Structure prediction request, 102 residues.
Amino acid sequence: MQWLKRLEDDAEHDASHIVFNGERFVVLPVVRQRGVADVTDAGRRVSSAMVTRKDGSYLSKLTLRQIVNADAGPYVCLSTNNAGYTFRRAHLSVELPQVLRA
Prediction:
């Protein structure tokens, strides 16, 4: 399983992106340790836990901490095996709190 974040059309082109279903995505890097996958977004606040279920299937949860506007947008969880691939989309909206004024 791999988490992807869609890049905006005006984002810079570099080698760290892939094209999936006609859209450009950055691949969130994964480091696997003791059966748990930790996504390390350049030391930022992104983590992913991958759990093996009793039926042999997997679950993956992406967690973002200290969200900023740049985190908003579409994400995709992509899973592949010898039979093919499947994916699920999620969209994150960021609404910053209003500052209370006395």
Summary: The two ends are 48 Å apart (CA to CA). Residues 51 and 57 are 9 Å apart (CA to CA).
